[in-house]
Amino acid sequence: MTASTARASFHLPRSDDPLSAVRSVVPMIRSKAAEAERNERLHDDVVDALIASGTMNLMVPACLGGGEAPPSVQLDVIEEMSHADGSTGWAVMASMTALGTLLSLISDEGVDRVFASDNYVFRARWRRPVAPLPRMGAISSPAGSHSAVAARTPAG
Fold first, then answer.
1. Residue 133 confidence (pLDDT)
2. Which of these, 6, 41, 95, 151, could form a disulfide with 136 (CB 3.0-4.6 Å)?
3. pLDDT tier at 40, thresholds 50, 70, 90
4. Measured between alpha carbons, how far is 95 from 103 in angstroms, rounded to an integer?
5. Alpha-carbon distance 154 to 156, whole Å?
6. Where are the beta strands (DSSP E) in the chain?
7. How far is residue 106's CA from residue 50's CA, in Å, rounded to a whole number?
8. Residue 74, Cα to own-chain centre: how many angstroms?
9. Nearest 5°: phi and psi at 2?
10. What is the dihedral sign for C-alpha 76, 79, 85, 88?
11. In the chain, what are the domains?
């Protein structure tokens, strides 16, 4: 699937002014941030509002009904969300990027299947590690530099 493929557009939420659209959601993002942190996931109301505002579709090609916003607009929108709540900004950036990337890699049939679902948006979730990761000491390479790869390589 490429953005230049001629096909019918999906009816996706979008805005002619993505920055104003996300600014209208910022008060909700701020009010739900503590609860989202406790629950380790974005609040469903915030995700629904971001979908309705067209924010989640900014990296979806216009030929599919998405916003296909220029990178500068995408960054402004992510910055606005991140200023309200860093975790929301990160999670939405990850979701927008994943959706846009996925749509550029799959077949037309796959695109149809993605948008056949009412739940096509990736809902990024962050979790604390269940157990601490083992500390990996640095191992000097022959050139005298430290290498994380060398630290994972079994001694031979």
1. 52
2. 151
3. confident
4. 12
5. 6
6. 139-140, 146-147
7. 24
8. 11
9. -125, 160
10. positive
11. 18-116 (1.10.540.10)
Cβ-defined contacts of 42-47 (< 8 Å, 24+): 42/87, 42/88, 42/91, 42/92, 42/123, 42/124, 42/125, 46/88, 47/121, 47/123
3-state secondary structure at position 146: strand
- The answer to whether 57 touches 12, Cβ cutoff 8 Å, is yes
In sequence order, the β-bridge partners of residue 140 are 146
pLDDT the model gives residue 122: 66
Cα(113)–Cα(49) distance, integer angstroms: 23
Give all strands (DSSP E) within 25-140, no chain letters.
139-140
* Tokens coding 91: 């999670």
Section 4-14 average pLDDT: 69
In terms of C-beta density within 10 A (0-12 exposed, 13-18 middle, 19 or more buried), how is residue 22 classed? Answer: buried
CA 156/CA 144 separation, integer angstroms: 18
Are the C-beta atoms of 95 and 123 separated by less than 8 Å? yes
Give the mean model confidence (pLDDT) for residues 5-31: 86
Phi, psi of 29 (to 5 degrees): -55, -50
- Alpha-carbon distance 3 to 75, whole Å? 20
The one-letter code for the residue type at 142 is: P
